[in-house]
Specification:
By secondary structure, the chain is an alpha+beta fold. It is built from three helices and four strands. Helices cover 34% and strands 25% of the residues.
Length: 107
């Protein structure tokens, strides 16, 4: 019986750390990746994608925004949250300073 328990425990541990139980990486930070810094691009939800990290440095251009709904890496933000922040994103770009604590800037 004892000889059977050790292999069974090893198999259970292997499944517990395998890809079968791996969780998707999610993010609340959405990095700006638009082509230009125009109002149209800054306020376009498709120019923001979820990331697991925040690579921004506090300088002069919009880098991204932190929103409360986590999304899978690579996805765009929830439209209702993003739409509520759009005006502040453009204001931040115009003033070269974050309009609120959710917005991060970069060089």
């Amino acid at each position: 019986m004892r000889k059977l328990i050790i292999p069974v425990v090893a198999i259970i541990m292997a499944f517990g750390s395998s890809a079968f139980t791996a969780k998707k990486s999610t993010s609340n930070f959405f990095k700006y990746n638009g082509a230009t810094r125009t109002q149209t691009d800054i306020q376009n939800i498709n120019n923001y994608t979820a990331r697991t990290d925040n690579p921004c440095e506090d300088v002069t251009n919009v880098c991204g925004v932190t929103l409360s709904t986590a999304k899978t890496v690579g996805q765009t933000p929830a439209s209702s949250e993003f739409n509520a922040e759009k005006a502040n994103l453009w204001l931040s770009q115009q003033n070269h300073s974050p309009a609120d604590g959710a917005i991060d800037m970069e060089p």
